[in-house]
């Protein structure tokens, strides 16, 4: 069978492959502890569920406007005004089926053959493939662990060519947890000011931030860049709503209008019921978010210390999100029972087979020296999982 060429250009998601393998082992009866999940382990808060149930009962079950209801757009506008001090009109907001879909639509309207998109690594697995599917070329900029996995102005400058169309920024980051402070962003803004590069700001972990500095994005720190910044956000991570599939973008009217046009010929509106639930999430009690963030912070503090206590592993303190990205490269070259560990994939397979612990190889995020663990799981699992890792790693030395 001959499929379209674009299929071969895209990699299947490695994170989903690991999850599938861990699930298969569990089905065989193995007691696997999962650090693979890219979603909060909390249940969606009750008032949000109730809003959806009410929507169903009220018959709010038909098509809505393609780019989202005015009610949800207004809730998003309000959120962006209060949290981010950014002003938008309804025509500058589009609601999609998750932030991933938002990013996909955005790539479809901005990127074409020959365009380059700067993607700092370690990156979220989907950025390069979303760019490739739009016909563009991802230009990967390797950030350094020493610099906290934050792209430096000199690195950005070096990556820019006449073909650079856009830059993806994601802070707090999946997979490293690194955030960009207002000052970090201002320093990058200096480089961007006299270019015409679009800034795609993936703010999905905005609320899951443990720093003294407040959250910021490029539109917030530099007035000159606001008209070139597309803010992408959603309810998945902050409100434990990954299955509801609601994400959104705010930006220049022309870009947003084009995204609505593309969406109108693909998915049409995001689910009506999920839109009602998202209004409740954004307008409702925010203490549910604070509760989750407090719990994540406790787990972060524990897991970072516990991982650093393992010989051969060193782990930076993440500033946000719910991932740690420890450096495991000093384990490379070691072996156990004739099994040699030379890459992040070798190591995570070893951990899965030898310790019944599922993690994700850094290679999936563009950095083979590290692995990713999600601490969106219970403290009990974290304690037991890290203990198992310690025992398994000890066999390698
Ligand atoms: C989870 C995630 C998204 C997508 O979230 P949706 O569930 O599609 O809204 C986007 N970016 C990053 C970095 C993520 O981790």
Describe the structure.
With 397 residues, this protein is an alpha/beta fold. The protein folds into two domains: 5-43 and 288-394, Alpha-Beta Complex (Aspartate Aminotransferase, domain 1); 61-283, Aspartate Aminotransferase, domain 2 (3-Layer(aba) Sandwich), CATH 3.40.640. It contains 14 helices and 14 strands. The chain has helices spanning 5-9, 14-27, 46-57, 70-84, 99-110, 126-133, 153-159, 182-193, 218-221, 253-264, 272-283, 287-308, 344-355, 379-394, and strands at residues 33-34, 93-96, 116-121, 137-142, 164-170, 198-202, 229-234, 247-250, 323-324, 335-336, 339-340, 357-358, 360-361, 371-374. Strands 2-8-7-6-5-3-4 form a seven-stranded mixed sheet, with helices on both faces. Strands 9-14-13 form a three-stranded antiparallel sheet. Strands 1-12 form a two-stranded parallel sheet. Helix 8 links the parallel strand 5 (164-170) and strand 6. Helix 7 (153-159) runs parallel beside helix 8 (182-193). The protein is globular and about 60 Å long. It starts with a helix and ends with a helix. The mean pLDDT is 96. Pyridoxal-5'-phosphate binds at residues 38, 98-100, 124, 170, 174, 202, 204, 234, 236-237, 242, 247. Pyridoxal-5'-phosphate is lined by residues 38, 98-100, 124, 170, 174, 202, 204, 234, 236-237, 242, 247.
Count of discrete domains? 2
Helicity range of the residues? 40-55%
Strand order within the widest sheet? Answer: 2-8-7-6-5-3-4
Could you name the CATH topology of the largest domain?
Aspartate Aminotransferase, domain 2
Please state the second-level CATH architecture of the largest domain: 3-Layer(aba) Sandwich
What is the CATH class designation of the largest domain?
Alpha Beta
Mean pLDDT: 96
Radius of gyration: 21 Å
**SSE topology string:** HHEHHEHEHEHEHEHEEHHHEEEHEEEH
Ions, cofactors and other ligands present here are:
pyridoxal-5'-phosphate
Beta fraction: 5-15%
How many strands, what sense, and barrel or not for the largest sheet?
7 strands, mixed
Model regions low in confidence, pLDDT < 50 over at least 5 residues: none
Number of helices: 14
Please state the structural category: alpha/beta
The tally of beta strands, per DSSP, is 14
Name of the CATH homologous superfamily of the largest domain:
Type I PLP-dependent aspartate aminotransferase-like (Major domain)
The backbone outline, from C-alpha atoms, is globular
| Cα end-to-end separation | 49 Å
């Amino acid at each position: 069978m001959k499929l379209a060429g674009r299929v071969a250009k895209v990699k299947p998601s490695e994170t989903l492959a690991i999850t599938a393998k861990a699930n298969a082992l569990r089905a065989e009866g193995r007691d696997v502890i999962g650090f693979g999940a890219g979603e909060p382990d909390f249940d969606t808060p009750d008032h949000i569920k109730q809003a959806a149930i009410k929507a169903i009962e009220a018959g709010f079950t038909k098509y809505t406007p393609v780019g989202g209801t005015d009610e949800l757009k207004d809730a998003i506008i309000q959120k962006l005004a209060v949290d981010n001090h950014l002003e938008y009109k309804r025509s500058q907001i589009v609601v999609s089926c998750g932030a991933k879909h938002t990013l996909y639509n955005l790539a479809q309207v901005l990127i074409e053959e020959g365009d380059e998109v700067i993607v700092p690594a370690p990156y979220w697995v989907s950025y390069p493939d979303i760019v490739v599917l739009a016909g563009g070329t991802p230009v990967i900029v390797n950030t350094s662990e020493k610099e906290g996995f934050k792209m430096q102005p000199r690195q950005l400058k070096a990556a820019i060519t006449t073909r650079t169309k856009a830059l993806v920024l994601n802070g707090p980051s999946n997979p490293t947890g690194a955030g960009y402070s207002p000052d970090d962003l201002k320093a990058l803004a200096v480089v961007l000011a006299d270019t015409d590069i679009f800034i795609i700001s993936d703010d999905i972990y905005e609320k899951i931030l443990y720093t003294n500095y407040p959250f910021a994005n490029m539109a917030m720190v530099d007035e000159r860049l606001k008209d070139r910044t597309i803010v992408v956000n959603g309810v998945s991570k902050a409100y434990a709503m990954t299955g509801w599939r609601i994400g959104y973008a705010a930006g220049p009217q022309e870009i947003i209008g084009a995204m609505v046009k593309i969406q109108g010929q693909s998915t049409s509106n995001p689910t009506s019921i999920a839109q009602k639930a998202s209004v409740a999430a954004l307008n409702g009690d925010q203490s549910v978010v604070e509760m989750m963030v407090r719990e994540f912070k406790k787990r972060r503090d524990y897991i970072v210390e516990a991982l650093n206590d393992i010989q051969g592993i060193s782990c930076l303190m993440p500033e946000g999100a719910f991932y740690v990205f420890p450096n495991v490269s000093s384990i490379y070259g070691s072996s156990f029972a004739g099994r040699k560990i030379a890459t992040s994939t070798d190591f995570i397979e070893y951990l899965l087979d030898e310790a019944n612990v599922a993690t994700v190889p850094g290679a999936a995020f563009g950095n083979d020296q590290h692995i990713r663990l999600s601490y969106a799981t219970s403290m009990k699992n974290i304690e037991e999982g890290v203990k198992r890792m310690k025992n398994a790693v000890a066999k390698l030395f």
